Amino acid sequence: MHALVLGSAAGGGFPQWNCNCTLCARARRGDAALSARTQSSVAVSDDGQRWILLNASPDIARQIHDNPQLHPRGGARDTPIRAVVLLDAHLDHVAGLLSLREGPPVHLYCTPAVMDDLTHVLRIVPVLRSYCDVHWHPISIGDERTDATFAIAACPDLSFHALALDGKAPPYSPRRADRGTGDTIALAVVDWRSGRRLFYAPGLGRVGPRELGWMRASDCVLADGTFWCEDEMPEAGLSRKTARDMGHLPQRDRLIDGTLQRGMMAVLAGLPARHKLLVHINNTNPILDPDSPERRELERHGIEVAHDGMEIVL
Predict the structure, then answer these.
(1) Which residue has the higher pLDDT, 177 or 203?
(2) Which tens digits make up the pLDDT trace of 190-228?
(3) For every residue of the chain, which 3-state class applies, written as one string?
């Protein structure tokens, strides 16, 4: 199995176009220590030739340009992208669908909740159908205790397993405050030939027993790295919202209602996975600086910070 990190940043990318935080200002001045990053997306393949997008970032055109694996290979029009799997309906994960309108019909795999938002609220699907058509393949998750397994014909040696998360619908969704089942999923991708397993969860608000079990069973874990600490945005003067308000588990431990909750760093440090990577990194997160004490702390725990263009072969 091949996994290609197309984008490793959270919404807005890095540097974010309107952000003048310390890190964005340094990156904009050309600080060589800080690498620019596009918005979060991963592609997987069973042969390195046919690829499945996991989320469709608004930066998808640039990501295709920057990764020759996704370039056309023959004929007047061609693409090795054969399907798109959406893990939620947030703008930084779905807006790139519109950039695929010049291609063949989009084979779209997502939950009914996500499809409802994209059809009746954001209306990306009706617009896209006017150009290239959309073939919807529902990911049917009945409740938080039920997983969904599905296959994608273009990559027959891979199986896909969806896990319902306690995540938030996007701000534009009428279900934003409801935390309904199917608004956010994590995805495990298994290679039938080798048994190798990849776990991808760019939006992860907590790690319960089920999530931890899936992560422990994986050879590669690409997990939510949005924030370093719970109050990162308020402390930077950029928002009143905490990591919890935005549905993300920070790297550092946090106190929730008087109870200490392990952060993502502690969770990943205890995993046997060969590859433990943070993705969906916000522009305020100090781990973007490779010389920061926060980055060195991650490295001491065997945790990597994913970067655009990173390819992993399992």
Answers:
(1) 203
(2) 999 999 999 999 999 899 999 999 999 999 999 999 999
(3) CEEEEEECECCCCECCCCCCCHHHHHHHCCCCCCCCECECEEEEECCCCCEEEECCCCCHHHHHHHCHHHCCCCCCCCCCEEEEECCCCCHHHHHHHHHHCCCCCEEEEECHHHHHHHHHHCCHHHHHHCCCCEEEEECCCCCCCCCEEEECCCCCCEEEEEEECCCCCCCCCCCCCCCCCCCCEEEEEEECCCCCEEEEECCCCCCCHHHHHHHHCCCEEEEECCCCCCCHHHHCCCCCCCCCCCCCCCCCCEEECCEEECCHHHHHHCCCCCEEEEECECCCCHHHCCCCHHHHHHHHCCCEECCCCCEEEC
